[in-house]
Amino acid sequence: MTHRILILGGTTEARQLAGKLAARASVTLSLAGRTESPVAQGVPVRTGGFGGAEGLAAYLQETGIDLLIDATHPYAARISANAAQAARVAGVPIVALRRPGWEPVEGDRWTQVDIVSDAVQALGPAPRRAFLALGRQEVAAFEAAPQHHYLIRSVDAVEPKLAVPDAHYLLARGPFREAEERALLEEHRIDIVVSKNSGGDATYGKIAAARALGIEVVMVRRPALPDVPSAETVEALAAIVNQFGADHLL
Ligand SMILES: NC(=O)c1ccc[n+]([C@@H]2O[C@H](COP(=O)([O-])OP(=O)(O)OC[C@H]3O[C@@H](n4cnc5c(N)ncnc54)[C@H](OP(=O)(O)O)[C@@H]3O)[C@@H](O)[C@H]2O)c1
């Protein structure tokens, strides 16, 4: 019998994991549907919210899912909490892919804050030239500090634009290399970067570039996530899933 796996995605790792597992299991990848033109995923995809933990629990039961994999972004805390709860309610095993966060190293000038609104405060009262490497939902908080110049990069256009007098918008999807990031920071004369602690290589370029240029970084700490079995890499998670399949004779 082929086992059924639901992967909660929205990350590069989720897509890679789906590709790795598709040969041995019936894999469905779930996306929130936020990105207007998501990259091709290579496995069947379902899109949109489930209607909270209860809705997800019902989905797991109705579709006979044997294993739930939470491979969402580390800042997507609500879906991760819902996934842990739904797995408990539905009696379905869950495992999470938890990419480790970045740690500051010699030369980094980080100010760490808990939430995006604290990052706005961390820019201070004097006008700065800030690069916001944040999602389009998060940048709205910076309207509270209209004295700064903002360079805003997002996958989808920020609509409506921020109600601030001086903002420049870029549309781009990673990965972003250090050399390109350095050129971007220099071209726009950026003196402070606001980032989430996403971890991984794909978006580390701006952090390395800021360090090389001596630029400050306001780092928004990760939210608390539920305590479920987890692995740090796609390979380690795939190994857990293979073991799960063998143990359950699926
Ligand atoms: N937050 C980030 O910085 C970030 C960065 C890159 C990618 N992403 C991806 O973008 C998606 C949305 O992020 P978010 O921070 O808005 O999430 P969130 O706040 O944790 O979730 C909000 C709601 O979106 C729905 N949802 C989220 N992920 C889903 C998925 N994979 N499949 C189906 N429904 C999903 C759920 O709706 P219901 O309650 O109705 O089920 C959830 O309650 C996530 O899948 C995440 O992996 C997020």
Task: Walk me through the structure.
- The chain has 250 residues and is an alpha/beta fold.
- Helices cover 30% and strands 22% of the residues.
- The protein has helices spanning 12-21, 52-62, 77-90, 116-122, 178-187, 205-213, 234-247; strands at 4-8, 26-31, 45-47, 67-70, 94-97, 110-113, 129-133, 149-154, 167-171, 192-196, 216-220, 230-231.
- The protein is elongated, with a radius of gyration of 20 Å.
- The N and C termini lie close together (6 Å).
- The relative contact order is 0.17.
Short description:
This protein has 250 residues and is an alpha/beta fold. It has helices at residues 12-21, 52-62, 77-90, 116-122, 178-187, 205-213, 234-247; strands at 4-8, 26-31, 45-47, 67-70, 94-97, 110-113, 129-133, 149-154, 167-171, 192-196, 216-220, 230-231. The chain is 30% helix and 22% strand.
